[in-house]
Write a structure and sequence with these properties.
Elements (H helix, E strand, L loop, with lengths): L15 H6 L1 H4 L5 H10 L1 E5 L5 H11 L3 E5 L24 H12 L4 E5 L8 H5 L4 E4 L4 H13 L5 E7 L2 E7 L7 H4 L12 H4 L5 H18 L8 E6 L4 E6 L21 H4 L9 E3 L2 E4 L2 E4 L1 H9 L4 E5 L3 H6 L5 E2 L5 H4 L8 E5 L4 H12 L5 E4 L2 H8 L8
Parallel strand pairs: 1-2, 1-4, 2-3, 4-5, 11-15, 12-13, 12-14, 14-15
Antiparallel strand pairs: 5-6, 6-7, 7-8, 9-10, 10-11
Helix pairs in contact: 4-5, 4-10
Length: 398
């Protein structure tokens, strides 16, 4: 394993300042001087500095990891601050990787930080990962999870400390070691696109990524020290509402296309395509009006003009009731999941403009209505967020 250091004589020495800083580690026989030197010698790559990456990177930096690589290309948004504790209010609008690096360096000046301000892709993943001993996957989407997994396996079974979160639940494991299963052994196929909502759509308890990120950091440190029982071949399931932890045994799949005995995936692939995610279609123009999948698009500013002109239009909100309580335009509410059974409540002869939070669910709703005989259906591009941005900033954004 990449974390086994066979020659302690080659380990970096600790300065007096470092000995003082890590004294509580040094007092643990399971760590001691040699263990702390192993931590200093280690190179760990954190993919993402968001919900999982924030506590993960913070605790690894505090523990004395010598080199911490960060991969991120996003900027700090106000909605991140409920859970991404490495960022602050003053960082809104800054690149996350810069915000995170500042906090980590302030916490531990002995830390070497390597910033990879880019999206991890099939073209760059192997090149980025090759310099690290362990990869910690803090991503929030299926294509990147499969990419990280495959890159770790193809890089010579580089351990992948994995976690994921959804609303009130999370899971963690260690994948891609020589003897243990990989992520594909557990999930051979990704779920259908749109089946599992993102945090932006489904929400997440802010404390949950802290809980799972700390578990990831714990696994990384155990791997480096060669102590304890890592989550290799085990999937830890966390239910934060019930505060219950369950464990599932995992086995290496001999027929796994990546880590099996006869692998068919021998190089990184198109993971968007593998997960069934088609490129975002460009809206066509029909008589000057953008049209997507047959549904004409209207902007918030154009909708405002039509409402001010008292045009005979009907606005339909297809979000969830709890979202309606956060912000609404006073429109009739029929959640997208209820629409097939309640479409009869709508007038097919009337012009209907459908909206949601940002335009995705309302596009699906408009297409559904069009398939059921509604001839005058529009989608509000940008949703209620666009309304807040371009028409009425008093409408809360969430």
């Amino acid at each position: 394993m990449a974390t086994t250091l066979e020659n302690p004589a080659t380990l970096p020495a600790l300065s007096n300042n470092e000995i003082a800083r890590y004294s509580r580690h040094l007092l643990l026989p399971e760590v001691g001087m040699e263990g702390q030197q192993k931590l200093k010698a280690a190179k760990v790559l954190c993919v993402g500095t968001g919900g999982l990456g924030a506590p993960l990177a913070y605790y690894l930096a505090a523990a004395g990891i010598g080199t911490l690589g960060l991969v991120d290309f996003d900027v700090v948004d106000e909605s991140n601050l409920q859970r991404q504790i490495i960022h602050s209010t003053a960082d809104v609008g800054r690149p996350k990787i810069d915000s995170a690096a500042d906090k980590l360096q302030a916490l531990n000046p002995h830390l070497k930080i390597v910033k990879h301000e880019t999206m991890l892709t099939s073209e760059n993943a192997l090149e980025i990962i090759k310099d690290y001993d362990i990869v910690a996957d803090g991503t929030d989407n299926f294509p990147t999870r499969y990419l990280v997994n495959d890159a770790c396996v193809l890089s010579g079974n580089k351990p992948n400390a994995y976690a994921s979160i959804f609303r009130f639940e999370g899971q963690a494991s260690v994948f891609a070691t020589e003897d243990g299963p990989c992520y594909r052994c557990l999930y051979p196929e990704p779920p259908p696109p749109g089946l599992v909502p993102s945090c932006a759509e489904g929400g997440v308890l802010g404390i949950l990524p802290g809980l799972l990120g700390v578990i990831q950091a714990t696994e990384v440190i155990k791997l480096i020290l060669g102590k304890g029982e890592p989550l290799i071949g085990r999937l830890l399931l966390v239910d934060s509402l019930g505060m219950r932890f369950r464990e599932l045994k995992l086995r290496k799949n001999p027929d796994c296309p990546v880590c099996g005995t006869h692998p068919t995936v021998t190089k990184l692939i198109d993971y968007q395509q593998f997960c069934g995610i088609a490129p975002e279609p460009k809206a066509a123009q029909v008589n000057g009006t953008p049209v997507q999948n047959g549904i004409p698009q209207i902007t918030a500013v154009e909708l405002k003009k039509r409402l001010d002109n008292k045009d005979d239009i009907f606005v339909l909100d297809v979000r969830e009731p709890h979202e309606y309580q956060i912000a609404n335009l006073g429109a009739k509410l029929i959640p997208l999941g209820d629409l097939p059974a309640r479409a009869g409540e709508l007038d097919k002869d009337r012009e209907i403009i459908v909206h949601c939070k940002s335009g995705g669910r309302s596009q699906k709703a408009a297409e559904l209505l069009a398939q059921n005989g509604f001839k005058k259906v529009w989608n509000l591009a940008g949703g209620i967020t666009g309304w807040s941005n371009d028409v009425d900033p008093k409408v809360p954004k969430y």
